[in-house]
Specification:
Elements (H helix, E strand, L loop, with lengths): L21 E6 L3 H10 L5 E7 L3 H11 L6 E2 L2 H8 L3 E4 L3 H13 L3 E5 L6 H14 L3 E4 L6 H11 L6 E9 L13 H4 L3 H16 L5 E9 L26 E8 L4 E7 L8 E8 L2 E4 L4 E6 L2 E5 L10 H18 L7 H19 L5 E2 L8
Length: about 375
């Protein structure tokens, strides 16, 4: 947790060593775990000690690529936690396993980083937070877009009062034809939803972060499925998805209302009839506004309307480097008790927003109230 004082580098816990090396294990050995492993293997203060996955094929693939020993591979994560006793666990499973895996890892005395979204719903996220607090362990959500240089630039502008109070924002995570043809992204019972919970969450969480992480109080939403549950007849980004098991939305839209009066409009889509993929947000405040994909600030200066664009932003901000940064932040948070940029409580608020849009859609578009978010101290 962001507020957990435990520091395995200085405490008497099992992770306290002279070398200050973090013994980290994985629950989930899919494709995203490979991205995490590549980032963590660059860090001399991290030792990857085990991988757990129900798929022996996935374990074998990572063992071949990264050289893990057979004794480091487990098909039962409970057995792995008991036998290996890792200092930290990286949860890279499908969404439906996030909560039980995280809760088990916290209960076993491990700090946890969990891929987005935190779980299937806000109740599960709260249980994860409660388990980490009860075990006095840290819990972090893997929101890598917070480490993008454009995010840092705009968040600094918000903190410095450039925008004033945010009034309205528009969030877009839209693909023209980008239904995943791998994994379980089309199965609601395993993922919790479709593009909103898979890709919309990225843009939603980073916009929420830039605008100061206000508490969400209500949501309105609608969802539609017109393409994903039918055979593909059009050349697509990833063709031949499993339409027979596709039970999620193609398109989700919604409004989130916050305690401070701000409103966010959300659009997220796997497949639809648009010109091109859009991955961006726009915020409008009393003094200024901004866009993120091409970071620009819009405000008034010297009696004129001005557009401000940075001439240079440090850091590439590409996929790999963002994972390097987010995992480095987690390791430092655990080993040195430095602040995390993505506390679990922020993950809870984001999950409440996702839940609210889905619940409203199920209720015919009626506004629904959102629960209290855990306090960030």
């Amino acid at each position: 947790m962001a507020t957990t004082p435990a520091n395995p580098a200085t405490s008497t816990s099992k992770s306290s060593t002279a070398t200050r090396k973090l013994r980290l294990a994985f629950i989930g050995a899919g494709g995203i775990a490979g991205t995490h492993i590549r980032a963590l293997r660059k860090m001399p203060d991290v030792e990857i000690v085990a991988l757990a996955d129900i798929s022996e094929a996935a374990l074998a693939k990572h063992a071949e690529e990264f050289g893990f020993e057979k004794s480091q591979l487990f098909t039962d994560y409970e057995q792995m936690l008991e036998k290996v006793e890792p200092d930290a666990v990286d949860v890279c499973t499908p969404n439906g396993v996030h909560a039980p895996a995280s809760i088990a890892a916290s209960g076993a005395g491990a700090h946890v980083i969990v891929e987005k979204p935190m779980a299937m719903n806000a109740e599960q996220v709260q249980a994860m937070i409660d388990a980490a607090k009860a075990a006095d362990r840290k819990l972090v959500i893997g929101f890598q877009s917070r480490f993008h240089p454009a995010t840092s630039y705009l968040k600094r502008a918000y903190d410095d009062g450039v925008f004033g109070e945010i009034r309205f924002g528009r969030i877009q995570a839209l693909r023209r034809r980008g239904i995943p043809n791998w994994g379980v992204f089309g199965r609601k019972e395993l993922q919790g939803g479709g593009p909103l919970i898979d890709i919309g969450v990225h843009v939603l969480e980073v916009a929420h972060f830039v605008m100061g992480s206000p508490r969400p109080v209500a949501a309105v939403g609608s969802t539609w499925t017109d393409i994903g549950d039918r055979p593909s007849t059009t050349i697509s980004q990833w063709p031949d998805w499993d339409h027979k098991t596709y039970t999620v939305e193609d398109l989700a839209v919604g409004h989130i209302r916050f305690e401070n009066g701000a409103v966010l409009h959300v659009e997220s889509m796997f497949a639809g009839h648009i010109e091109k993929t859009v991955w961006d947000f726009q915020l409008m405040g009393e003094k200024g506004g901004c866009t993120w994909a091409e970071p620009r600030i819009f405000t008034d200066q010297l009696g004129h309307m001005v557009n401000i664009q940075p001439g240079f932003l440090a850091g590439k901000g590409d996929f790999g480097s963002l994972f390097d940064l987010k995992l480095r932040n987690f390791v430092n948070h655990v080993l040195h008790d430095t602040p995390t940029l993505a506390p679990a409580e922020h993950g809870l608020m984001v999950q409440q927003m996702l839940d609210g849009i889905y619940r409203s859609a199920e209720a015919g578009g009626r506004e629904v109230e959102l629960g209290e978010a855990a306090e960030v101290v």
